[in-house]
Amino acid sequence: MSSKIYVGNLPYSVTDASLKSNFSEFGSVTSARVMMDRDTGTSKGFGFVEMASAEMAEAAIAALHGVSVDGRSIVVTLARPREDNKRSDGYSPAGYTATKRKDVGYGTGGFGGGRY
Description:
By secondary structure, the protein is of the alpha+beta class. The chain has a domain at about 5-80: RRM (RNA recognition motif) domain (Alpha-Beta Plaits). The chain has two helices and eight strands. The protein has helices at about 15-25, 55-65; strands spanning about 5-10, 30-35, 45-50, 70, 70-75, 75-80, 90, 95. The strands form three sheets. It has a four-stranded antiparallel beta sheet with strand order 2-3-1-6, covered by helices on one side. The longest helix has 11 residues, at about 55-65. It comes from Roseateles aquae. Keywords: RNA-binding. InterPro entries: Nucleotide-bd_a/b_plait_sf, RBD_domain_sf, RRM_dom, SLIRP/GR-RBP-like. This is RNA-binding protein.
């Protein structure tokens, strides 16, 4: 079992240090990180905490899930593995792929080209 914990619905005032101190009551915290928006530098309202053991993680989840922090009820669960990024806008790690429709696009009846 994993010892990585997802913490959601965090107030924007929570920092890495305060997150770590709150979870350290339940055991040794390996890392604590609040996710920040790269453009604005503000909190995204969620973070991840990694505990030293799975037992410590379970104890923290049981005790902190649903607790009110600055008027917000936080969500504390085991972190799920990251899913593959399936974007719907046509971009992928391999590059841009055109739409699956045959009636739109350059040279096929869309903008700039037509069927005659």
